[in-house]
Amino acid sequence: MTTRPHPGTPLVFRWRKWDGSPHWEHDCVYLGSDEHGDWVGQRGGWRSARPGRDTVSEGDNVTLIPSGGEYAATLNATHPHIAIYIDVAWDVRWDAAATGSPEPIGIDMDLDVVRSRDGRGIWIDDRDEWDEHRVQYGYPLEIVDRLERAALELEAEVRAERAPYDGDTAARWLSVLAALSAN
Predict the structure, then answer these.
(1) Any idea what DSSP says for residue 87?
(2) How does strand 10-16 pair with strand 103-116?
(3) CA–CA separation, 35 vs 66, rounded Å?
(4) Strands 22-34 and 10-16
(5) CA torsion, points 7, 9, 11, 13, in degrees to nearest 10?
(6) 61 close to 173: Cβ distance less than 8 angstroms
(7) 133 — phi, psi (to 5°)?
(8) Separation of alpha carbons 4 and 93, rounded Å
(9) Nearest 5°: phi and psi at 180?
(10) Which residues, 6 or more positions from 60, have their beta carbon under 8 angstroms from its beta carbon?
(11) Contact call for residues 88 and 109 (beta carbons, < 8 A)
(12) 3-state DSSP helix/strand/coil percent for the chain, to nearest 5?
């Protein structure tokens, strides 16, 4: 197991696509861990960028990095449209190769589970990209099956508001983020 940084340590969550090309990079801070996995946080106004797009966070958020490596779940405090955004992924893990310090990395696999806060509900997003990329990149069938099941299971968990998608879990980690930022 890779050593985790100390709570409050700034880091970058680096995503890539299946072919190794760069994808999103999110400036964040390590918050700690609980029974669900490791947590990182991003304050409103912090940078998120990918090739061709550079943005800032629309409010504080916390991201769960579970030990299974099949997703990363971002829970937004005040984003105007999205309450929960789960990136279904492959090989999400901690790695120290890029910087010498442990940072989260993962392969974005296109499918996303979303819970809106603007009345659109809960759904699995980007199925069109998933269908296109699994052919283009040649995703192995066993990974396709596994991640399609994972997306459906995550959607059910979000609908049922089971922890960590219950609101209380996010509130706890958002308060850790706020306390670290106040210091």
Answers:
(1) E
(2) parallel
(3) 9
(4) antiparallel
(5) 0
(6) no
(7) -75, -30
(8) 11
(9) -65, -40
(10) 41, 42, 43, 44, 76, 77, 78, 174, 177, 178
(11) yes
(12) 25, 40, 35
The predicted-structure confidence for 26-74, as pLDDT tens digits, reads as follows 999 999 999 999 999 999 999 999 999 999 999 999 999 999 999 999 9
- φ/ψ (deg, to 5) at 49: -145, 150
CATH code: domain 10-172 is 2.40.380.10
Q: Which residues contact 47 (CB under 8 A, 6 or more apart)?
A: 26, 27, 54, 55, 56, 57
Domain coordinates in residue numbering, the chain: 10-172
3-class state of residue 173 by DSSP: helix
| Burial profile 124-134: b = 16 or more Cβ within 10 angstroms, e = fewer | bbbeeebeebb
**CB of 177 within 8 A of CB of 31?**
yes
Query: Tokens for 114?
Result: 């979303």
Q: Could you read off the pLDDT of 123-146 as tens digits, one per residue?
A: 999 999 999 999 999 999 999 999
